[in-house]
Structure prediction request, 146 residues.
Amino acid sequence: MHEHVNFVPVESDADCLASFQVMQQLRPHLTDATAFVAQIQRQRQNGYHLLAAREDAKVIGLAGYRLSENTLYGRFIYVDDLVVDASLQRRRLGEQLLERVREQTRALGYRYLVLDTGMHMALAQRFYFRQGLLPRGMHFSQDLSQ
Prediction:
């Protein structure tokens, strides 16, 4: 593991902007950096947290999560985004980011960490299995703009 990797919250507009290229690897539909910064700041007002893995001041990984509550899990943390720069993916950074989110979950006294991944993302699914996350259902959605 690399000791010069720091894990820091993304809060300022400048920090959001510095995170854009890495987030875009996970979310290629995000094409406007200014709109991304505005969206992250709106989401932060609604309880979203973005944690960056930084090395030499460069963002190399991100974990975006939010505190949530429902009748299935009670209070839980939902991971919206987990991404590591594609050129650095064998360094266990995803595991380290996820562990920091787990620590936050436990610190709040929440029992569950929940996330979704695409059915077509076999490598991500294998990673989540190795991390001890198990599938408990299927996520359904419908595009209502059509």
